[in-house]
Specification:
Blueprint (H helix, E strand, L loop, with lengths): L4 H18 L12 H18 L9 H23 L1 H17 L5 E3 L6 E3 H16 L2 H15 L12 H39 L5 H20 L3 H23 L1
Antiparallel strand pairs: 1-2
Length: 255
């Protein structure tokens, strides 16, 4: 195939979509993954899709028209990656709430993956879900999704649908519902502890409930966390299904 200017324009659009996805999708967007690895993977996939993806003649008017095509392709890749990354946001939210309940919220650490301050349980849940993601080869599904998107949405045919806010509303709903489902066992146990402490405060006013409460909440919280750790695979499975649903929804809204 002769590599003409038209072919270069087509290759650039493919590269922009894939790069936007790689830099926002889970596992591939990790901060500790070298930038040249992300760039090399994006170029490698773009070369493959350049020769295999179905394409039509690009239709645009001038430089501005082509720039709009580039922006649309970048937005599609970013949106797909963002909705595929729903897992980490949910477990991070749940971990922060759990640590707030048992008293670990005072201990923050720098997450080397996201480069933000996070809590201990949030980090634990995040790494567990990430590990399950790699064990179940979910990252292969993400690569397959971005490749299949070229079958559903051909190059230059991305539609910026304003109705995508409905998908965002669904994301926020799932964000809180799934997050509070994860937190519920801890929340219920701490509620029982607070009730017991309130009764003891009335029965024995001379006791320092603040000191006793901090230690009791910590012990109960760690005990419940140990008991529910075996539920993490089922939680991760539910989150993964939501990720796949949101990813498919993003492609449908942009087609």
């Amino acid at each position: 195939m002769t590599f003409t200017i038209q072919n270069f324009e087509l290759f650039l659009l493919i590269l922009v979509r894939i790069t936007g996805f790689i830099y926002t999708a889970p596992f591939f967007s990790l901060k500790n993954m070298p930038t040249h690895v992300k760039t090399g993977l994006s170029i490698f996939l773009a070369v493959i899709m350049f020769y295999t993806a179905p394409t039509d003649t690009l239709e645009y008017v001038g430089v501005i028209g082509y720039a709009m095509l580039v922006v649309a392709e970048a937005i599609l890749g970013l949106v797909m990656g963002f909705f595929a990354n729903i897992a980490y946001y949910i477990v991070s939210f749940a971990g922060n709430i759990i640590d707030m309940e048992i008293g670990f919220s005072m201990v923050n650490e720098l997450d080397p993956i996201t480069m933000i301050q996070t809590t201990i349980t949030s980090n634990l849940y995040g790494y567990l879900v990430l590990l399950m993601m790699m064990i179940t080869n979910l990252h292969h599904y993400f690569l397959k999704a971005i490749i299949d998107s070229f079958q559903v949405i051909k190059i230059g045919e991305v539609v910026l649908n304003p109705g995508i806010y409905q998908l965002m509303v669904r994301f926020i709903t799932n964000y809180f519902v799934i997050g509070f489902r994860i937190v519920l066992p801890i929340f219920a146990s701490i509620l029982v502890v607070n009730t017991i402490l309130a009764i003891l405060a009335k029965v024995a006013p001379h006791m320092n409930m603040f000191v006793i409460g901090m230690q009791l909440k910590l012990i109960v919280g760690l005990l419940v966390l140990t008991m529910i750790i075996e539920l993490i695979p089922s939680v991760a499975d539910f989150i993964f299904r939501e990720m796949i649903t949101m990813l498919k929804g993003a492609i449908e809204y942009m087609s």
